[in-house]
């Protein structure tokens, strides 16, 4: 049986980083109007919306490279937690396909936690 935890960690990092990076690129191209609107309904200032660029552009690049991936995954996990809170309020509402309406953000959150727990593996810029 083939067992290589470093390949698994690489696959986890690449999957998480690349997939969330698309969300960041979309927000960079199309703007943060939706995020700003959600933040406007809270007591926080709307400039906090620009934190999305840290969580969905910078952190994924660090995760992909395996450069301080645990820290970057922590930033992304926080970003996903806030996204779930702002967009869904942790409701138990279901999507039209039967899953939680916020399951994609939850999967990204869980994947981020896994990177924090497992680390980058040997196929990373700052591996040991």
UniProtKB/TrEMBL annotation:
Principal location class: membrane
Which Pfam families does the protein's record reference? DoxX (PF07681)
Q: Does the keyword Isomerase apply?
A: no
Membrane topology label: Multi-pass membrane protein
Coiled-coil regions listed: none
- InterPro entries to which the protein is assigned, alphabetical: DoxX (IPR032808), DoxX-like_oxidoreductase (IPR051907)
The cellular component terms of Gene Ontology attached to this UniProt record, alphabetical and capped at eight, are: plasma membrane
Q: Which of UniProt's keywords are assigned here? A: Cell membrane, Membrane, Transmembrane, Transmembrane helix
List locations, semicolon-separated. Cell membrane
Membrane spanning residue stretches: 7-26, 46-68, 75-94, 106-125
Family of the protein in this entry:
Belongs to the DoxX family.
Report what the protein is called. Answer: DoxX family protein
Q: Which organism is it from?
A: Sulfurimonas marina
Specify the taxonomic lineage. Answer: Bacteria, Pseudomonadati, Campylobacterota, Epsilonproteobacteria, Campylobacterales
């Amino acid at each position: 049986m083939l067992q290589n935890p470093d390949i698994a960690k690489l696959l986890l990092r690449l999957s998480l980083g690349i997939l969330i990076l698309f969300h960041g690129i979309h927000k960079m191209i199309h703007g943060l109007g939706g995020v700003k609107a959600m933040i406007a309904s809270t007591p926080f200032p709307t400039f906090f919306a620009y934190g999305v660029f840290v969580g969905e552009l910078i952190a994924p690049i660090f995760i992909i490279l395996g450069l301080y991936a645990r820290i970057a995954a922590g930033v992304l996990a926080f970003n996903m937690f806030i996204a779930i809170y702002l967009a869904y309020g942790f409701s138990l509402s279901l999507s039209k396909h039967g899953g939680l309406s916020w399951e994609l953000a939850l999967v990204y959150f869980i994947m981020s936690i896994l990177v924090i727990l497992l680390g980058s593996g040997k196929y990373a810029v700052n591996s040991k």
